[in-house]
Specification:
Radius of gyration: 18 Å
InterPro entries: Na_symporter_ssu (IPR019886)
Keywords: Membrane, Transmembrane, Transmembrane helix
Protein name: Putative solute:sodium symporter small subunit
Largest sheet: 2 strands, antiparallel
Distance between the termini: 22 Å
Strand order of the largest sheet: 1-2
Organism: Flavobacterium cheniae
Number of domains: 1
Helix content: over 70%
Oligomer: single chain
Shape: elongated
Pfam families: DUF4212
Number of helices: 3
């Protein structure tokens, strides 16, 4: 595979990961915290409505978890395309 095709395939896969992870974060922060808050408020978590919890803390937790998932995915992607330093 030529270097240009190699780099293009790498970035396509990288962008696919980004879109998936950002979509998950959007659904958790905007969707669960704003759009679906009435339905989620019927469920209690630690004494607080689940919609309130997502709006206040849940989306931040999800974001931090997604950072670690992205790092793991990128390390695997780097190894797959030979861009790792190991």
């Amino acid at each position: 595979m030529s270097d240009q095709k190699h780099a293009t395939a790498y970035w396509k896969e990288n962008l696919r990961y980004l879109l998936i992870l950002l979509s998950i974060w959007f659904l958790c922060s905007y969707g669960a915290g704003i759009l679906f808050v009435d339905q989620l408020n019927a469920i209690k978590l630690g004494g607080f409505p689940l919609g309130f919890w997502f709006a206040q803390q849940g989306s931040m937790y999800v974001f931090v978890i997604l950072i670690f998932v992205y790092v793991r995915l990128m390390n695997k992607l780097d190894k797959k395309y030979g861009f790792d330093n190991d």
